[in-house]
């Protein structure tokens, strides 16, 4: 179900002319990070730590141009 939803979302971004998708995920969420990485997302190198609560987040991106 997760893969189908992600495909629908990235297809909609592409159809609207987008060439890249991005998302934030908690750094301490290995299951979600593996899902995004298997889908093709890669860490962008950006991180943030919101003040309330202080949980580190990692940014992922996926280039949509040329995806099959």
Instruction: Please indicate the count of domains.
Output: 1
Q: Specify the CATH homologous superfamily.
A: Gcn5-related N-acetyltransferase (GNAT)
- Stretches where pLDDT falls below 50 for ≥5 residues? none
How is the largest sheet built, in terms of strand order?
Answer: 1-3-2
- Total DSSP helices: 2
Which second-level CATH architecture applies?
A: 3-Layer(aba) Sandwich
H/E topology pattern:
HEHEE
Mean pLDDT: 93
> Helix proportion of residues, in percent?
25-40%
Largest sheet: 3 strands, antiparallel
Structural class: alpha+beta
Shape: globular
Q: Can you give keywords for this protein?
A:
about 30% strand; Acyl_CoA_acyltransferase; three-stranded antiparallel beta sheet; Aminopeptidase; transferase; about 70 residues; alpha+beta; EC 2.3.1.-; acyltransferase activity; 3 strands; single chain; 2 helices
Question: What this model shows, in words?
Answer:
The chain is α+β, with helices and mostly antiparallel strands and 68 residues long. The chain has one domain (2-63): Gcn5-related N-acetyltransferase (GNAT) (Aminopeptidase), CATH 3.40.630. Helices cover 35% and strands 31% of the residues. It has 2 helices and 3 strands, in the order αβαββ. It has helices at residues 2-15, 30-39, and strands at residues 20-26, 42-48, 57-63. The protein has a 3-stranded antiparallel β-sheet with strand order 1-3-2. A hairpin with an 8-residue loop joins strand 2 and strand 3 (57-63). The longest helix is centred in the N-terminal third of the chain and has 14 residues, at 2-15. The mean pLDDT is 93. It is an enzyme of class 2 (transferase).
